[in-house]
C-alpha cells in the first residue's frame, strides 16, 4: 500500500465460486492459502475504513461457469461484498474495460491499488498492467492470488506455481510491485497511525 489510506483501494478480482468448482473437478492450483490471505486483507481494509472494490467475471460464453445465473458466478462466501462496497462486472480479462473502474477511482481520489484474486496470469495480471498504464500505483499481493496448471501451445504442461511465479516476474518493477499480505497489513498499520 502506498500513500494515505483515503487514496488506496483493495481491488478483489474474480473471487468466485467457479474456481472452487474447477478445483472440485480436479484442476490443480497453487497458493492454497490465498483465500485466507484475502480474508485477512478484507478485514484489515474494512477495519481502517479503506475502500474495497469487488470485480466479478460475467462471461458471455453460454457454457461458462462464470456466466451470470450460474452457481460459479457467485462470490465465494468469505469474499461477499458489504453495504457500500461496489461490485463491478467485467466480460473480458481487464477490470478496467467496460466497468467504469477508472472513472470510479479518479472520482474517488484513489491513485493506489492493492490487487488480489484470481487468476494471477489472466485477469489479475491484465488488470495490474492496465492500472500501471493508466498511471495508478499498483501492488499485486503474491500470497493472495492464485492460478491453475497450464497447457502450453505444444501440449507441454506448466505447473501452477511456475505460471504464478512467471506472472509475478512479468509485473514486478515494470507494471507494479509484488508484495505479501504481511507487507500490506504492516503498511496499513503505519498509514493508520500517521
UniProtKB/TrEMBL annotation:
<dbReference type="InterPro" id="IPR036380">
    <property type="entry name" value="Isochorismatase-like_sf"/>
</dbReference>
<keyword id="KW-0378">Hydrolase</keyword>
<dbReference type="Pfam" id="PF00857">
    <property type="entry name" value="Isochorismatase"/>
</dbReference>
<dbReference type="InterPro" id="IPR050272">
    <property type="entry name" value="Isochorismatase-like_hydrls"/>
</dbReference>
<dbReference type="GO" id="GO:0016787">
    <property type="term" value="F:hydrolase activity"/>
</dbReference>
<dbReference type="InterPro" id="IPR000868">
    <property type="entry name" value="Isochorismatase-like_dom"/>
</dbReference>
<protein>
    <submittedName>
        <fullName>Nicotinamidase-related amidase</fullName>
    </submittedName>
</protein>
<feature type="domain" description="Isochorismatase-like">
    <location>
        <begin position="8"/>
        <end position="183"/>
    </location>
</feature>
Amino acid at each position: 500500500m502506498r500513500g494515505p489510506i483515503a487514496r488506496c483501494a483493495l481491488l478483489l478480482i474474480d473471487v468466485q465460486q467457479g474456481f472452487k468448482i474447477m478445483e472440485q473437478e480436479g484442476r490443480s492450483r497453487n497458493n492454497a492459502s490465498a483465500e485466507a490471505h484475502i480474508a485477512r486483507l478484507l478485514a484489515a481494509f474494512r477495519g481502517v475504513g479503506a475502500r474495497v472494490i469487488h470485480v466479478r467475471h460475467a462471461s458471455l460464453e453460454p457454457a461458462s461457469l462464470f456466466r451470470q445465473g450460474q452457481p460459479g458466478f457467485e462470490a465465494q462466501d468469505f469474499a461477499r461484498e458489504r453495504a457500500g462496497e461496489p461490485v463491478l462486472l467485467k466480460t473480458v480479462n481487464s477490470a478496467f474495460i467496460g466497468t467504469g473502474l477508472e472513472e470510479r477511482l479518479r472520482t474517488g481520489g484513489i491513485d493506489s491499488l492493492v490487487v488480489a484474486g484470481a487468476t494471477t496470469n489472466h485477469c489479475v495480471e491484465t488488470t495490474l498492467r492496465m492500472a500501471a498504464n493508466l498511471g495508478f500505483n499498483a501492488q499485486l499481493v503474491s500470497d493472495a492470488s492464485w492460478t491453475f496448471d497450464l497447457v502450453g501451445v505444444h501440449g507441454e504442461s506448466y505447473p501452477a506455481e511456475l505460471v504464478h511465479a512467471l506472472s509475478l516476474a512479468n509485473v514486478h518493477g515494470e507494471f507494479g510491485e509484488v508484495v505479501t499480505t504481511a507487507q500490506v497489513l504492516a503498511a496499513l498499520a503505519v498509514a493508520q497511525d500517521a
